[in-house]
Amino acid sequence: MKRKKYYLLLTIFIMLFTSGCFFSKKNIEGTDEDYTYENTYYVITKNVDSHKINYFEVNDKGNRRKAEKFESEQFDEVIYLHNCFNYNNEILESCKITNNDGEVALEGINQKIVYQISSLEHPMFDIKIYKKNKDYYVTRGENVNIYVPYELYKYSTVDNKLHLICHISDEEIIGFKKKSLN
Hints:
182 residues; alpha+beta; seven-stranded antiparallel beta sheet; 2 helices
């Protein structure tokens, strides 16, 4: 009986470890046709262990490939969320959002985005909302303990939902920009 439990635990551990390795090393390149300007972003990341800066081109199919060095988009505003969610992603009364000029009110579009963030799975940290013209983006880290995934979302003002752009493991998203026609 003890032997069966041991093998069961060992099997579970191996499955978790290999799935973590798979997700953290995903670098499916795809073809040039997969990277159109309509569905592609350039993303700058920093490895959570080595702090090495990496540059990727990512698309809406989950593919990514190395990219040449580039400058991140200059955003009109970056909003930081502090102490906004508990472990179940419920919004806390102590939620404070700030930008470089100080505290920002939790109202209007910011409130809608925060409510959408609270609907995402997994406890999260390091949440930022980026605004460029009328476009809004969200980056966040997930607290899943096996590896450290970071995600980039675009907020749609049409359906008031967050749409996943990319999921990158063990790489903090520190900058990005949409691919242009040029």
